[in-house]
Specification:
By secondary structure, the chain is of the alpha+beta class. It is built from 14 helices and 26 strands. The strands form 7 sheets. It has a 4-stranded mixed β-sheet with strand order 24-25-1-26. Helix 12 links the parallel strand 24 and strand 25. Helix 1 packs parallel to helix 2, helix 6 runs parallel beside helix 7 and helix 10 packs parallel to helix 12. The protein is elongated, with a radius of gyration of 22 Å.
Length: about 425
């Protein structure tokens, strides 16, 4: 099993190109099921989750092709990929595929909208907490879907097609909003979604669906209106930059010190995070090329954050922020409001010398003068990269085990960091 080896202490200087957002790419790929024309996605990241979803879509009959050869530039794969669901050959998403990635459950909305039926395995548990699909199923029922759950599968039918309706999400859910946008696009009549997610990935999907011929207004606000159409055509769209990657590398520079241009980064995607980093003494400059991050490497000011849906502080950056706060000049408080079990990285950071205590859903982090390298284990995607951030500034050698989590969401991580002076490499076997 691969591991990552880091010798800490080097500052980061150079350019890091920002990849396409995984959390935008996955629903955009699933949208290809809605049309028998070609959907072209630019800036598709090269990630384990993306490749797995390509397999899952292939199970339903979606063909894909890469435009020309893959060109690697500045440590990044720039891919334009064409998805073509000319014929849906299978409306069942089996357990052995869905269990590997929860987002694959989202195919249920597109299959229902186009084929009038879907049989999708329940996704099961998740390391960072429960992510119930009840909101998705209730939303589809509001569009006239008949749903039965048998033997671990959701069997959904809308034999006469989906019908527009009103639905209020009991809690903001990005996945639920994605599914309802795709399903309602082909429903007869109007659909209004209340308490919808406002994330930039939602806006990216809505823009894509509108280019395909959908009629969606209000994306990016809590109230979205969808006027259903009879069919959708092909389209071409660029995947937005990955805001979690932007925040992760910005925090890495704040941790180690240095001067890095995050090429292609869009500051509007994570304004709340950049504001907090500025308050802590990090220099952040925005220009046409992206975002420039500068810090002298001295201890930064502590900070208190609470994870919230967009435009609040993202839960997917909570672990990275905690890694940064281990070296702050004082005590920080980090409250997790989205997932109930997203502090599994705490004990691994403690192995590096961090001082962290937990009180319910709040972590109290007392900054230390220095971290010390050690063997640690990644527990999930975002937790794993928090250990990378900590290891970059720790004295001596840090070995991170179970790094397959990283490959799910960070493209060319070691290469991007090593190009900026980090002593980091992957050890195979």
């Amino acid at each position: 099993m691969d591991r990552i080896k880091i010798i800490g202490g080097n500052k980061l200087n150079g350019i890091i190109p920002i990849s396409g957002a995984k959390n935008a790419a996955l629903p955009l790929m699933i949208a290809s099921l809605l049309t028998d024309d070609i959907l072209t996605l630019e800036n598709l990241p090269h990630l384990v989750d993306v490749e797995l979803l390509i397999r899952i879509l292939g199970n339903h009959g979606v063909d894909y092709s890469v435009n020309g050869r893959r060109e690697r530039q500045d440590g990044n794969y720039f891919r334009t990929v064409h998805f073509h669901a000319r014929h849906i050959v299978n409306t069942t998403a089996p357990y052995d595929l869905v269990a590997k990635m929860r987002a694959s459950f989202w195919v249920i909305g597109s299959l229902l909208a186009r084929m009038g039926e879907a049989e999708v395995s329940l996704p099961g548990g998740c390391a960072i907490g429960t992510r119930p699909v009840d909101f998705i199923l209730d939303g589809l029922r509001a569009l006239g879907t008949e749903i039965n759950i048998e033997n671990g599968y959701v069997r959904a039918k809308a034999s006469k097609g989906l019908l527009g309706g009103q639905y209020t999400f009991p809690k903001v859910t990005v996945g639920g909003t994605h599914v309802m946008l795709m399903a309602a696009s082909l429903a007869r009549g109007d659909t209004v979604l209340h308490n919808a997610a406002c994330e930039p990935e939602i806006v990216n999907l809505a823009e894509c669906l509108n280019r395909m011929g959908a009629n969606i207004t209000g994306a990016g606000t809590p109230k979205i209106h969808i006027s259903g159409v009879s069919s959708l055509s092909g389209a071409r769209i660029k995947i937005i930059p990955d805001r979690i990657e932007i925040g992760t590398y910005a925090m890495a520079v704040a941790m180690t010190g240095g001067d890095v241009m995050l090429k292609g980064a869009d500051p509007q995607l994570l304004d709340s995070v950049l504001q907090i980093l500025r308050q802590m003494g990090v220099n952040i400059a925005e220009n046409a090329d992206g975002i420039r991050i500068q810090h002298d490497g001295n201890a930064i000011e502590p900070g208190d954050i609470e994870t919230r849906p967009f435009p609040g502080f993202p839960t997917d950056l909570q672990a990275q922020f905690m890694g940064l706060m281990t070296r702050a000049n004082g005590t920080s408080h980090i409250t997790e409001t989205i997932f109930e079990n997203r502090f599994m990285h705490v004990q691994e950071l403690v192995r590096l010398g961090a001082r962290i205590s937990l009180s319910g859903q709040t972590a109290i982090v007392e900054g230390v003068a220095r971290l010390q390298g050690a063997q640690v284990m990644a527990t999930d995607l975002r937790a794993s990269v928090s250990l990378v951030i900590a290891g970059l500034s720790a004295g001596g050698e840090t070995i991170i085990n179970r790094v397959y989590h990283l490959d799910r969401g960070f493209e060319c991580l070691e290469e991007k960091l090593s190009n900026c002076g980090a002593d980091i490499k992957r050890v195979h076997g």
